[in-house]
Amino acid sequence: xxxxxxxxxxxxxxxxxxxxxxxxxxxxxxxxxxxxxxxxxxxxxxxxxxxxxxxxxxxxxxxxxxxxxxxxxxxxxxxxxxxxxxxxxxxxxxxxxxxxxxxxxxxxxxxxxxxxxxxxxxxxxxxxxxxxxxxxxxxxxxxxxxxxxxxxxxxxxxxxxxxxxxxxxxxxxxxxxxxxxxxxxxxxxxxxxxxxxxxxxxxxxxxxxxxxxxxxxxxxxxxxxxxxxxxxxxxxxxxxxxxxxxxxxxxxxxxxxxxxxxxxxxxxxxxxxxxxxx
Length: 278
Ligand SMILES: C[S@@+](CC[C@H](N)C(=O)[O-])C[C@H]1O[C@@H](n2cnc3c(N)ncnc32)[C@H](O)[C@@H]1O
Hints:
Elements: H1 3-16, H2 22-34, H3 38-43, H4 51-65, H5 70-74, E1 76-79, E2 82-85, H6 97-107, E3 113-117, H7 123-131, E4 136-141, H8 144-156, E5 163-167, E6 178-183, H9 190-195, H10 198-201, H11 217-226, E7 230-239, H12 245-255, E8 260-265, E9 271-277
Helix pairs in contact: 1-2, 1-4, 2-4, 6-7, 11-12
Bound molecules: S-adenosylmethionine.
S-adenosylmethionine (SAM) binds next to helix 7 and strand 4.
């Protein structure tokens, strides 16, 4: 079958399944199935698919039609200019989280010790290790499966010597105090969980998203203990949901009354990162 015919058929299947970017996803999955780029696909729309290739492509399209995220199907996701491996054991890194990485890079001194709490795929930890070549990073996660994915990403990007992966609850596994705590912890509230699209609430790990009744369970626990793990003049950067700014600022001021507490907005103009500078 010609590539362009297979593509048109696949896009129609995805449209019928209410996939928003049906054509784009059909192209990404065809390029993935053939091991070529989308540009190569566009350059040779008359090329032929063998029956084995077509069968494989149709399986990928069926998965997408059941709303499995493209990143899990192709097994990787771009984040902060890096190609990261992902699978269903980790949250797919989001573009909003790049703001946390930017702020962490601005905040860090040359030889800081930093921690990425709830590292998941290692997105934040690996980005920081690459952009801050002198820092030591402790990356923690409660999930052993997530840490396996993070370990693969550390090796893939050659930072396994400077990113120490530690399994455990929040800051508890840290062997020493740090200069910077960066965390994108679960912050989805119970009410929001029910409204999430199937791509998220049927496929991504619930423990990576669910922050309890108001979404702030993990952030509350982290802020309550952060003082014990922070060096003098240390900072905390927390990714938050767009409506959680006031609540998290209040919590931060309660635990760090002398600190400068600020909020950074993402590119959509929404509150996204709370910064606590002690
Ligand atoms: C929102 S995901 C963030 C993943 C990654 N940092 C990112 O930004 O793409 C939250 C992560 O926190 C981890 N997590 C949840 N509860 C935790 C806890 N009590 N202690 C440590 N990690 C936890 C989850 O396993 C998940 O990997």
